[in-house]
Design brief:
Helix content is about 50%, strand content about 0%. By secondary structure, it is an all-alpha fold. α2 crosses α6 and α5 packs across α6. The radius of gyration is 23 Å and the shape is globular. The termini are far apart.
Length: about 160
């Protein structure tokens, strides 16, 4: 029937272009809760089977394909990747980008979102957390110097 959409087949009105990737970043929001354990576990499965071959298990771009001469993908832990919105990542998985092909025919929409949940988990684990302030170096040197004096200058 003209003007109807088959159930479960919502169209995406984007082209495989950088401007549409930016637009997708603004317009597309993940339907999955980032804390959803099932989504994260499924995302880990999808990532290990479809993404890790190029991106590597940790997402740094050192997968087996990249180690055998294929141009390595950018690290998913790089500042640029950390700043990409979920909709932009979904666009990349759907339409491809640079050397990365589209995965729309291999991965359902839900599995693409699951993979994004997992990538965000990897990124969160790799992001350094500020550490409490440690004693300053001059104080440590003073302690070491005093200890060295007490031992007669011997280490």
């Amino acid at each position: 029937e003209p003007g109807t959409i088959a159930r479960g087949s919502m169209p995406l009105h984007y082209a495989a272009t950088p401007p549409d990737a930016l637009r997708a970043g603004e317009e597309l929001k993940s339907p999955l809760d980032p804390g959803n354990v099932r989504a994260r576990e499924r995302g880990a499965f999808v990532f290990s089977n479809f993404c890790a071959v190029c991106h590597g298990a940790g997402g740094t771009g050192n997968g087996p394909v990249a180690q055998r001469g294929y141009p390595p993908p950018p690290s998913l832990m790089a500042e640029h990747a950390l700043k990409l919105k979920d909709g932009q990542l979904f666009h990349v998985l759907t339409y491809g980008q640079n050397n990365m092909p589209s995965y729309a025919s291999q991965l359902s929409r839900e599995d693409r979102w699951n993979a994004i949940v997992y990538v965000r988990t990897l990124q969160a684990a790799a992001t350094p957390v500020p550490t409490p302030t440690a004693p300053s170096t001059p104080q440590l040197k003073t302690v070491q110097t005093d200890a060295a004096k007490a031992s007669g200058g011997q280490p």
